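User: Predict the full complex structure for these chains.
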Amino acid sequence: MPAEILDMIFDNIDFVTIQIVRKVCRHLRNHIDHFPPDSKLVNVTVKRLNQQPNLTQDESISVMYLTKNLQKFDVEYQKNGKNGCRILYGNREKTIENQDFASVIGNDLGLILRNQNSEMTTITIYFPTLSKLRLSENCLETFHGRFIAALTPHMESRRTPIQTKQIEVYGTNQEYGTNQESQIMKILQFFDPSSLESIMILFDKQPGFASPTMKIDRLIGLEQWKQAKSITIHGLNLASNIENFSHLESFAIELKQISGEELVTLKEKIIHRPSLVKRFTINYRHLKDPSPFTSVFVEPGPWEYTAWFNVPNNIENALRIRWHPKQKWFVFECRKRMIAAQGTIFN
Amino acid sequence: MSVENAPVVDVDEAAIPVEKKMYYRFESNDKKEFRVSELAIQQSETLNRLVEAMGYTSEDVENKPAIAIENIDGKTLKLVFQWCEHHKGEAIPVDDGSVPKIVEIPEFDAKLMDIDNGLLFKLIWAADYLNIVQLLNVSCKKVANMAQGKTPAQLRRVYLLPSDEEDEAAKRAAQEAQDPRAREVEEEFEERKRQGGNSFF
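Assistant: Here is the predicted structure of the two-chain assembly.
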């Protein structure tokens, strides 16, 4: 059968069946591997499953796929014994012996993402909790290390990186936040910077505990970071200068430290940039030498202070900055001037 | 319109239609002849270009030999022309990638393609050769539907394809030409493929 006809047939087959067809014979496998039929996914979510009997939350993972024509495929992986994996898909069940659970998930996901040609909307990856041992992020003793190690060859075998508008990375690891940069970088590098608009890195915050600090020196060098329009990082305290975020349309972050001088520079950048910012939310732990910036906040509210700034050559909009000294946050937003209270001074 | 009522006819089986529409005569590689309306031919880009280039009049159609389609047998060509007659006048889909292609198989097409796999694959091949876009779409969709929900072993049985092990064994057997039993294995394998008639993969 000519290759073009095989492509047309495969174009009508969902990605799960493609994986089955791939196992039929060498000829079909070669064709699928050389001319990957589009998996036609819009969303992929790798998620921990809670409340599984006899399993911890890191031993039961669900991978959910949603296709363009709204077909949903949900595959559940359970750790089975010391070195085995139980896979549940629909009413089917399969047990694989002598194969690592995390590697099976990474390999399966890689095989499907390898064939993803069209642009996706969102990829969501929940990082399982790391073990209590202090292990390197590359270490194959972690779920992560093995998952990424199995996924990477498939992603590297692609001719072009995967296109997705948004990537969401969730985690719970509070103790070893500093290691997360490498893990997040590895994930981000799989995706096409020109397509990626929004990066969300969301870690659980434990009440009463400060967020762990994460360095982002290498992360900010990635094209994915430079070309993103929106970045949200929650539950990790960033050791970084606010300058590294000023190119974005919107961001929400927590910084270890910020100075009044940095905030003045940011404000100047915002009002002089060609496009209006949507919303910059900065939570901070320490505010250093605030006076150059905070002196403009002349309108104390009950809990928070507000200041408005003119945007040159824009009669309709202005920059509104809100500051909550007790809760330690600033919000910068370009808003309509008309919503400002009567008598507001525009600096 | 049912498959039986479609106006594609073998010349010796039915009268020439009385309407004064332009018809063309085609001949399959096993010398079966068909009369097909000009409008139906438009479904095939290849045939449409061919008849345009030939510039036949109604007299030419009658007086000159039927246009030979050497790569397609009569059984397959009959299905092709039945499909074209049923869908004559319909717009030819254009796939420019701007919208996701959703193919649905109409009842007529489903009945037409209720055939053995060998003939179905010949139909696909003919639709590709004659560039009949929508027939190719529905026939590929039919093959795709046949694969849904099956295991690799079931798919091998449906399409009569060898497993990797069988493929290897056949190759080894072919190489061991000195060994009569090896030759037998190879012949058996090839015969199985021939009998199936659908080892197009």
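Chain A has nine helices and 17 strands.
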